[in-house]
Write a structure and sequence with these properties.
Elements lengths: L5 H26 L24 H50 L25 H8 L45 E25 L2 E26 L3 E18 L10 E10 L3 E7 L9 E9 L10 E2 L26 E12 L2 E12 L2 E8 L3 E9 L3 E11 L4 E12 L3 E2 L2 E2 L6 E13 L5 E9 L7 E6 L2 E2 L1
Parallel strand pairs: 7-10
Antiparallel strand pairs: 1-2, 1-18, 1-19, 2-3, 3-4, 3-5, 5-6, 6-8, 8-9, 9-12, 10-11, 11-14, 12-13, 13-16, 14-15, 16-17, 17-18
């Protein structure tokens, strides 16, 4: 049997292997989209190898792909920035809606709105699409992109009303809610007060601690007051307001005592009254920050008090001669003053802290009385008693309260107000008989809103110290224009 030579058969495998390798390379280039243009067909010699592809064409295709990747990366960065802006806008809108809800729950007269969940409570955002899908979306024709919408109000821009603190029933002199910009509020009010104090004076000396030789002067002072006030407030710029207050005061005082240094066994009643314009006041307030749910509002204010009312130095005192040297007479004014007699300036800060369903609020203030020079007072017979330079004691004030809305029209408040009054100075020294006083008042108030223009506020104050009026009842009717 004849054998076929092996060497020629091996030589025939070489062209087959080369053709298979060339076909695989060509298929790979087509799959990557990088197939270079075929050169024009040229005659080849039998058994000659085909020409290798030029290296310049793949290099140009790689540069184009790199530029496309960079463009897609920039688009992704722009989308991320746009997403961050939208999240911030949603957060602002959510805070605005929460403030609207709190304002409604505190008697502002607006129906409670729907509160959006926070970003942390919302469902997690969908994962970004794969890179090839993003490239495919970016490669879509420009006409398929969504058309820009007409310019509208930025999402999340809160209404002006939500920048204001929630309204509560007013029980203190300084309100916590500012007047809206461009609005004017006229507030007539009436305050009734009553106080009764007992005073015991011992004139004599003691032989032993249980025996007194001398006179005992016992006095009961009962004072009734009525103050009618017209207050006007004007909102400026949404965060500021100015206020002017003009009071008219009526006072009546009854002093029950027995004449000192006499043998009378009957009580003597000394009556005095006074009425007229009180001390006109002007106040400017400014909201220092933008609060919100579980974030306090701070309102700074500055108050100036004039001395337009008739003061203690202008009324006639029941003394025949100097009251410090002669006990003849009661030493009491024949007409009660309607003013303090001192100009004063009072800075302060009011804060409100909404914590659903209540609002906590309070004020800290300091009142400085300006000194008066060359002061004299009038005694019986139109004689003048020279007193010199007089300065009333300064006053540190602090109050604290909480308000609760019962529904969209009614709300109640409960609070405590205290004032620390310093000693009066005369000619640079403490005046004889001057003492420090502490005034404390427990207050309870309520507000009912009849319409968008006017409401009724009533506050009751009960004194908790001997020097504080026993009872004060205040009614206010703010009317909006």
């Amino acid at each position: 049997m004849r054998r076929t030579p092996q060497l020629p058969r091996r030589l025939m495998l070489a062209p087959c292997l080369w053709l298979a390798a060339a076909a695989a390379a060509h298929a790979q280039d087509q799959w990557q989209g990088l197939e270079p243009a075929r050169p024009a067909a040229q005659p080849q010699a039998a058994g000659a190898l085909p020409a290798a592809p030029a290296p310049a064409a793949p290099q140009r295709s790689l540069d184009d792909l790199q530029r496309e990747i960079n463009a897609q990366t920039r688009k992704l960065d722009e989308l991320r920035n746009s997403l961050a802006q939208q999240e911030a806008a949603v957060a602002n809108l959510q805070r605005a809606l929460d403030e609207e809800r709190l304002d409604a729950e505190r008697g502002a007269g607006v129906a409670p709105g729907t509160v959006l969940p926070t970003l942390a409570q919302q469902a997690p955002a969908a994962a970004p699409p794969p890179a090839d899908q993003r490239q495919a979306q970016a490669a879509q024709p420009q006409q398929q992109q969504p058309q820009p919408q007409p310019k509208q109000k930025p999402v999340g821009q809160a209404p002006d009303s939500v920048t204001r603190p929630p309204e509560v029933a007013q029980i203190f002199d300084q309100p916590g809610v500012l007047t809206p910009s461009g609005k004017f509020i006229l507030e007539p009010s009436l305050q009734y007060g009553y106080s009764a104090n007992d005073r015991v004076a011992l004139v004599g000396y003691t032989v032993i601690p249980a025996i007194l030789i001398g006179l005992i002067d016992v006095r009961q002072v009962k004072t009734t007051s009525g103050v009618g006030t017209i207050t006007g407030r004007m909102g400026i710029g949404g965060r500021a307001e100015v206020e002017v207050k003009v009071p008219y005061v009526y006072l009546n005082g009854d002093t029950v005592s027995r004449e000192i240094f006499t043998g009378s066994a009957q009580d003597r009643v000394f009556n005095a009254s006074g009425h007229g314009m009180g001390d006109v006041e002007a106040t400017a307030r400014y909201q220092l920050n933008r609060g919100g749910p579980d974030k306090a509002f701070y309102i700074g204010w500055l108050r100036y008090k004039s001395r337009t009312g008739k003061d203690l130095f202008e009324v006639t005192t029941d003394c025949v001669q100097r009251c410090l040297q002669n006990a003849t007479g009661t030493g009491l004014p024949l007409e009660l003053p309607t003013g303090t007699g001192f100009e004063a300036i009072q800075p302060g800060v009011t804060w409100l802290y909404p914590s659903d369903p209540v609002v906590f609020f309070g004020t800290f203030s300091y009142l400085y009385n300006f000194e008066r020079s060359n002061v004299s007072r009038t005694v019986l017979g139109r004689e003048e008693e020279f007193l010199g330079d007089v300065q009333a004691g300064d006053i540190w004030g602090f109050n604290l309260g909480m308000g609760l809305a019962l529904n969209e029209k009614a709300s109640i408040s409960l609070g405590y107000d205290t004032s620390l009054i310093g000693k009066t100075k005369q000619n640079g020294r403490e005046s004889p008989g001057s003492v420090r006083l502490t005034l404390g008042t427990l207050l309870l108030g309520g507000t009912y809103r009849f319409s968008d223009r006017w409401s009724l506020n009533v506050a009751l104050g009960v004194g908790v110290t001997r020097d504080t009026p026993d009872m004060t009842l205040t009614a206010r009717v703010p009317i909006s224009f």
